[in-house]
Amino acid sequence: MYCFDPLCGWCFGFGPVIQQLEAAFKDKIQFNAYAGGMVTGERVTPIGETFSYIKNALQTVEQRTGITFGQGFKDLLEEGTYLYNSVPPSIALVIYKSVSQGSSIALAHQLQHAIFFDGHSLNEPEKLGRIVHEAGLDEDVFLQLFQQEKYRDKTYEEFAFVQRLGVSGFPALLYREGRKLYALSRGFQSYEPLEEMIGQLLEKNAKDG
Questions:
Q1: Long-range contacts of 119-122 (CB under 8 A, 24+ apart)
Q2: Would you say the pTM of this structure is higher than 0.85?
Q3: DSSP state of 186
Q4: Taking the CB of the first residue and of the last residue of the chain, which one, N or C, has fewer CB atoms within 10 A?
Q5: Topology of 2-208 in CATH?
Q6: How confident is the model at residue 84 (pLDDT cuts 50, 70, 90)?
Q7: In this structure, what DSSP letter does residue 47 have?
Q8: CB 206: neighbour CB atoms within 10 A?
């Protein structure tokens, strides 16, 4: 279980890692992305209000993860009025998981690439529709579903589920086997240690089973 937030820069850096893990283990493990609701309620503010914190963090994330934040996002940050809100892109993820057989891991990174590289808004349904269309979901179908209150409710249920898992920061990668839940990473982690841990868990569970 990959717990992330569409507006989490460290999650953007972790995107290539989790995609590589899914490619390596998809025949043995079901990978799903879960939205954690990092920026909701009173935390929803213009990006300019957290300008200094985000700007200072960009270089750290780039150096640690190897990801590159695009000029589009840097321009969005400098302009300052963009409303930072996790809810709309999280609804898009929930809708996608509800009606598509595609990879929610891939969509999670596509959403983040749209804002953190291209500087696109994740607040407008039409722009989210174009992103999910690229991920294989019909844009008109998405826009119809986006208007349904039940998907907003399901999104907040997903936020609560992530909290019940004990996740308080993003990204977090968890592995569930039966009733056992293993925390593989809390925060960014590179590919090789995670590959080794997952391999060991699969080997252990095969022996125990």
A1: 119/70, 119/71, 119/72, 119/73, 119/74, 119/75, 119/76, 120/72, 121/82, 122/6, 122/7, 122/85, 122/88, 122/89, 122/92
A2: yes
A3: E
A4: C
A5: Glutaredoxin (3.40.30)
A6: very high
A7: G
A8: 9
Q: Look up residue 1 and give its two tokens.
A: 């279980």
Residue 115: both structure tokens together: 């804002």
Could you give the angle at the alpha carbon of 4 between the alpha carbons of 187 and 112, nearest 5°? Answer: 110
Query: How much of the chain, in percent, has pLDDT values that exceed 90?
Result: 87
Reading the block at residue 131, the tokens are 């992103």
Give every CB contact of residue 123 below 8 A, 6+ residues apart in sequence.
Answer: 82, 83, 85, 88
Assess whether pLDDT exceeds 90 at residue 98.
yes
Q: Could you identify the residue written with the tokens 């150096």?
A: 63
